[in-house]
Amino acid sequence: MDKVDACGCADPVVETDRVIVRTEKLNLHYGKLQALKDIGVELPANRINALIGPSGCGKSTFLKTLNRMNDLILDCRIDGRVYIDDVDIYGDIDVVDLRRRVGMVFQKPNPFPMSIYDNVAYGPRTHGTKSKTVLDEIVECSLRRTALWDEVKDRLRASALGISGGQQQRLCIARTIAVDPEIILMDEPTSALDPQSTLKIEDLMTELKKSYTIVIVTHNMQQAARVSDNTAFFLIGEVVEYGPTSRIFNQPTEKRTEDYISGRFS
Amino acid sequence: MANPPSRKVLGRINLYYWKHENLGRGLVTGFGIFLAGLTLLMAGFLAVKGLSTFLVDHVSPLEFLFSTKWSPDADVPAFGALIFIVGSILISTLALLISTPFSISTAMFVAEISPNLGRKVLQPAIEIFVGIPSVVYGWIGLSVLVPFIRRSFGGLGFSLLAGSLVLALMIFPTITSLAADAFRALPTDFREASYALGATRWQTVRKVLLPAAMPGILTGVVLGLARAFGEALAVQMVIGNMIRIPGKLTDATVNLTSIITMDMGNTATGTPWNDVLWSMALLLLMISFLFILLARTTGQKRRSLK
Amino acid sequence: MRRRIRPQITDRIATATLYLVAGAFVLLLVAFVGYFLYSGRSELNFKFLFTEPAFSTAGGGIGPELFNSIYLVFLSGLISVPIGIAAGIYFAEYAKPGRLTDFLRLSIETLSSLPSIVVGLFGFLVFVILTGWKFTLMGGALAVTILNLPVIARTSEDAIRSVPESIKEGSLALGATRWQTIVRVLLPSALPGIVTGIIIASGRAFGEAATLLYTAGMSSPRLDFTNWNPISATSPLNPFRPAETLAVYIWKINSEGLVPDARQIADGASAVLILAVLAFNLLARFLSRLLGRRFGGSRS
């Protein structure tokens, strides 16, 4: 971590329980189908918040409401409130700015078909950074923070499609932190990866939460138990239970949560 | 902090969005609509010119469509275009009849028998065929085909047959590539299911794949027909341009595009003779629109089949 | 047992027949190309390619015609490439499904299937008569642009659509606007397909004749190839002069036929057009492979 601090990217570690994301009566419909029902959660900053639940339960949909990626889907209707830093992101705001502050990592690594360097520099360039020295600095620092620098520093100009799947996913994380977001959304980021690459990404998340708030969707309960601080259990569009991970996994208050965690249904 | 984009307060809409989104969006939307508008503009211009035959020169539309009497320079001129219409229909239908069996066979070969040879040899060959200019087709028709027909069947050589053969060659790649697409688009299950029942490859192709691919093949046939109907120079160079309905395959004849090509330069704008040529152009436009609608309906059947 | 064997035999016969048809087709193409290169071989020399045509004597060249064809394709490309790609972007990314879009698509499909002679007549009406330009290279280029636009728009749209959705999402999630995503990610990824479309359209324009008879005209003024001032009347670069192209010339010497060696000239000019078709095809393949490698395919 010394090197990271040396390149000036790491924000000071803040150990507060400041709530950064808050939703109130959030409802979402795809046409007539209701995908989210009355979601009201508060996610604290600088924590890893895991969203678990069976497939189709709305956890990915919920994740995408936080950076308004659902805007891209036709006849998707949202009501209720989502506050980030106490600003209603469905109010009169700039979506571009929102997405810069709320980054996203996808299920399958999706590097752009360009060089490794250009992938990481894409975000800053898009937001107006032209200076070569500044870009170099951002690229190096983002790659270092994702532990990718030593692996790719000799081939920054090579195509990003030429590195392994695990490396590609870390590149996508590097690409996300290159625009210096506050929150990083991760949609089953390790589901397409082998166990070793998965562990690397999990270590990375623990490292990253010092500077960022992480919201991760996972279908892998061991993963949720291993890395997250808080867990929300989703079922058919509703949040059944939300709280510290250790409590959710050891003493769930809801019967349905217990059933799911003990594998009685999936 | 190394990151230059300053943290803006959420909630402020700035010039950034206008500059990076709305400008580009407006531009491409404008061009997209412009392109569609161009068609309408064209239809409008041709309609104005083409309808003046009937509205200004008072030629009866029925005479235009159904009379074979064409004497535009007589004292009492007659403007029956039926000969040209029949010529166009005959030539393109014949071309289609010649071309379609070969096209479908080649498409079967490319998609089912040897996809490897298909991709490496036939696909490039088809692309080259599409690219050959129509005057070159016309010229080979004129310098090779016409003398050949003259020697083999007598007559002038310039004939309905020559025109149809040249057109058949020209529309062959169009039909073949669309038919091959239709075969390729069929799900693999069809083949597997048929082979699993012990059918041979030919039985599978003939009994299962051909009927299933038929809507797509028909689309190809319709578009081939459209191309044949509208082709001008290649046909004009080899059909002899005699204003009469042909009695046999080796007779010279004429079609819509040829008469437009030849007479447009010899007639003065605004004369009834000239106006009639525009009416023929309008007719061609309407027919190609009909072909597109037809191709769309056959294409829709294909979609509902999936 | 007899009945059991029959399908296998039919299968063999059918397969053999299909091989025969496909083989005959390839043979036909080889014969076609071979014939022109053979019969035009004596004309494929420097003198024929670069000298002026003769009016009534043998031995004329095709220099100005060749130049006009190339210049016309270039001018038309200047207009049709940006507009075509823009329209492709609109239909791939911005057009919302619905009646209006259906209607726009129908219009463009109709435009792309119009007989080229009809496009030529429209060009005659607008770029020759209405503008008062008379027969000009510019008028011809604009008419050919109308032919090319739907082709380029269509191939651009297809190429942009074939870029994976995940890549688009990745860019939007970084806070890029839709437009930035298009310009910085989608267009570079779609470039091989777009370039192929442009080259196909250019090849078509190069050999186009019916559209040009009544727009660019069937004559070319005496050009002074040392005069590169685009507004001078004898300059080859002046777009507002009549400009007979190579394909039009083939048609004209066959229908007017004043020169005694019309046949050799037509053979030679056809050979040049065929060579151009081959060159355009090879170029399209080469460029799309090169660009495909440059923007992603490579796994170094």
Defining key terms:
A: five-stranded antiparallel beta sheet, 11 helices, 11 strands, 24% strand, globular, disordered N terminus, C: 300 residues, mainly alpha, MetI-like fold, 72% helix
And the CATH topology of chain A? Rossmann fold
Radius of gyration of chain C: 24 Å
* Main β-sheet, spatial strand arrangement of chain A: 7-8-9-4-10-11
Kindly, what is the distance between the CA atoms of the first and last residues of chain C, rounded to a whole number of angstroms?
Answer: 58 Å
- Going by CATH, the architecture of chain A would be 3-Layer(aba) Sandwich
| CATH hierarchy: architecture of chain C | Orthogonal Bundle
* Strand runs of chain C, count: 0
Task: Characterise this structure.
The complex is a heterotrimer of chains A (266), B (306) and C (300). Helix content of chain A is 36%, strand content 24%. The longest helix of chain A is centred in the middle third of the chain and has 14 residues, at 132-145. Chain A has eleven helices and eleven strands. Chain A has 266 residues and is of the alpha/beta class. The longest helix of chain B is centred in the first third of the chain and has 41 residues, at 15-55. Chain C is an all-alpha fold and 300 residues long. The mean pLDDT of chain C is 88. The chains are: A alpha/beta (266), B mainly alpha (306), C mainly alpha (300).
